[in-house]
Amino acid sequence: MATVELKNVRKIFGRNVIAVNRLDLEVKNEEFMVLVGPSGCGKSTTLRMIAGLENVDQGEIFIDRKLVNDIPPKDRDIAMVFQNYALYPHMTVYQNMAFGLRLRRYPQAEIDKRVREAAEILSISRFLNRKPKALSGGESQRVAVGRAIVRKPKVFLFDEPLSNLDAKLRVQMRAELSKLHARLKATIIYVTHDQLEAMTMGERIVVMRDGLLQQVDQPLHLYRRPANKFVGGFIGSPTMNFIEGTIEGTGNSLVLDEGVLKIQIPPRYYKSLSRYIGKPLIFGLRPEDVHYRNSVKSGQETAEISATVDVVEPIGNETFLHLIAGKSHLVASTTASAFPQLGEKIKLTLDLSRAHFFDKETELSLL
Ligand code: ATP
């Protein structure tokens, strides 16, 4: 059993840098939890407080229901894997992996068994006698993970472990770490700024911004039901389109008025939006819900708009169209094989069944 719980945790650097503010979080036993957010949002500081590498200024941290605020890192039964791997250059792979166990005075036979088992799991058995400088980035990464595994800790903490790897290796390591989690059945807290890494690996994701938790949820729930505009924009690539406008109409017919564009709103949103009549808000729609020649089910919940093509970005399996519609900029992702010319005026179909609406001031979702 290893749960991790943070209650009202706060960390202030110097006089006034609030790195983490009033953070409440419960990581379940054997859960793969990912902390994600832009640079400086406080995710590494959160991880370092759980590891005991930073003091907690306020609040409480529990590992396995035990208060650990005053327990030193070595007694917390956690293992941390860093971005720079932090391998000892003068030791072989074997010695690097065995080091933590030696310090804890494990018997030699047990150390040997654990190192060889971990090396087998990570396919690094053939490197055991090499020094780190004779390893590639991906291999060094595996050794760093191996060094954590041999300890059989209650909780694994990963701080951007894949960011030094090239794109292809990152995709491969992502899948390997997911498999490793399934095999070890360990509790993992994993920090990244890469939303794709978060979406593909996390069983649940914590989105942070400016030291504050924005939303905790399963990946697809975050994608489909972002709690606020920040989460809507941060999760998903290309990013969600946002159009500022005012809701006009009566209770029976509502229109989003952007100034130039006028978008008829489907009845399913009337209840949520009726109190916003006459008020400004932000409409959100993901690029894949802005259709250009893609088959979109014709129904009540679509709207047609015209737009001018500004930039065309073919990436192979799909093409991103940057468009000007009314006063707004939009991106559409299309799988159509023929794409339009720059400057061309085209028709788009918006799938409004997947629309989002946010309060202009608080940026909270209205749905
Ligand atoms: P990154 O992805 O860039 O590592 P992060 O989300 O992990 O970012 P943190 O490293 O946790 O962010 O930093 C949160 C805030 O605390 C930032 O504003 C950072 O400048 C500040 N900070 C972090 N460590 C210290 C420190 N030792 N002294 C002063 N300020 C710090």
Task: Describe the protein.
- By secondary structure, this protein is of the alpha+beta class.
- It is 24% helix and 34% strand.
- It has helices at 43-51, 93-103, 108-121, 137-149, 167-184, 195-201, 219-224, 229-234, 270-273; strands spanning 4-13, 17-27, 32-36, 58-63, 66-67, 78-81, 155-159, 187-192, 204-209, 212-217, 241-250, 253-257, 262-265, 280-285, 290-291, 302-314, 319-325, 328-334, 345-351, 356-359.
- A hairpin with a 2-residue loop joins strand 11 (241-250) and strand 12.
- Helix 2 crosses helix 3 and helix 2 (93-103) packs parallel to helix 4.
- It is elongated, with a radius of gyration of 25 Å.
- The mean pLDDT is 93.
- Adenosine-5'-triphosphate binds at residues 13-14, 17, 19, 37, 39-45, 193.
Q: Can you give the mean pLDDT?
A: 93
Sequence of strands across the biggest β-sheet: 6-7-8-3-9-10
Helix content: 10-25%
Oligomeric state: single chain
How many separate helices?
Answer: 9
Provide the succession of SSEs: EEEHEEEHHHEHEHEEHHEEEHEEEEEEE
Number of strands: 20
Give the biggest sheet.
6 strands, mixed
Beta-strand proportion: 25-35%
- CA radius of gyration is 25 Å
Distance between the termini: 37 Å
List ligands, each type once: adenosine-5'-triphosphate
* Low-pLDDT windows of residues: none
Overall structural class, as computed from helix and strand content, comes to alpha+beta
Shape: elongated
